[in-house]
Structure formats: structure tokens, C-alpha cells
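URGENT: need a sanity check before tomorrow's submission.

F., can you look over the Copper acquisition factor BIM1-like domain-containing protein record below? I want to be sure the sequence and structure line up before it goes out.
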Amino acid sequence: MTKGRLQLSKSIRSVCLAVAAALPLANAHFVLQIPTSLGFSDINEVQAPCGGFDIASRNKVTNWPIGGYPIGVVSTHPNAHWQIRAALLENTEEFVDLIPNIVQDGLGNFCLTRVPGIADWVGKDAVLQVVQRAVDGELYQCAAIKFVEGATASVPGNCRNGSSVVASIDPDYTGPATLPTGGSAATTTTTGAPASTSTGSSGTNKSVHPPMLGLLATVIYLFDSLFDLSGVL
Ligand SMILES: [Cu+2]
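C-alpha cells as predicted:
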């Protein structure tokens, strides 16, 4: 490695290396742990769409109930912006948001307990893409998935939140994603009991129009603030 390259690399990595020492995954920007990813490469994670891995790889396919499946990551970046998307394998040019974008503070484990599937895609080969935008720019990890009928999947014990992790829906999000009923699903609770909120109506996913999102994010944020989640965050 040349001196110039080394210095560039050092400056890019300085922030996440500073905190990586405290985490089991040294040097990693972020690692998708749940569901099983297509693979992780620290160096190639900046490459869209899947961090350097073949988007068509189907070595381990996760069945993803429409009712929701957990996403668990470990991040070494303190201020991260997350985009959770999926594409059909037959059309990997077109990713669709599964939930509104998430903003997250804090380091370490981060768990979204209940990310809904796309009912129209049941039975088709699909790819989950998790995009993190943070200090190192955009980073990518993918997983081979297939949406299936069914209620919310259980959350494994290793899908959890670091003690300092706080997350909420990005108030600037204006995209088309639907929000799961009982909005706390899109935030960071790891218990299996995301109580219904004022946003809940039916058991199906609810379309949220852009003007609603700011209010909704506020509601969810307040909702979470009202409850003592210190034991599960
Ligand atoms: Cu990094």
C-alpha cells in the first residue's frame, strides 16, 4: 500500500476505528447479522448494491413473513441513517422501501424487530438491502429472502440494542414506504409486545402519506419516551 493510499485510508477509517476497539467486530463499518447476509467485506461495503457480493446469490434464503421479520445489525458508527429496502431478483434495478428511513444514534447492536414484507411479492425470489449512510458514506449489505404468508416472526435473542442506541423514523422521509401498525415496530424495542398506539387501526400495513410522517414520527418518539424501555434498548 502506498503512503498516499495509506493516509487516505486512515482518514476514512479514523472515526469508526476509534470506536471499533470497543466492539467485537474490529474495523467493521456495519455488519448485517439478521437475516443471514450474502456476505460481509469491510473493504467492499461501500459498493452498491450489496457490498461487493453477487446480488443473485441464493446460498441461504430467509423466508420473510408478510407480518414482519427482524433485522439486526452491529454498527461502529455513532450517527447513522438507515434505509431498509427490497427488490425482486428479476428486477434488481428497482428497490422498494420496506419501512420509512430510520435515524439512529449510539453504537453497537441495533435491532428492528418487525420489518413488514411485501404481500404482492409472496413466493418470489427477492433481495433485502440494508443501506447505512454515516461518516464513511453509504454502505451496503444484502440478504437473499423470499416473502411468505404469515404473522410476525419471532425475534432471536441476538437481535438487540446497545445500551446507548436510540432510533426513530427520519422526520425528513418523504418516500412511499408503509409503516407497520403499532408504530413502535419501526423503532428499537426488542420485546415481543409493541403495544398498539394511536396510529394503529387494522391488522394490516397502513399507508402513510408524506405530510403524516413528521407527526407520526413525533408520536412514535413520544410514545417510546413515555415508556421505560431501558431494559430492552
Ligand atoms: Cu466505517
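My own read: The chain has one domain: 3-169. The first strand starts at residue 30 and ends at 34. If you see anything odd, call me.
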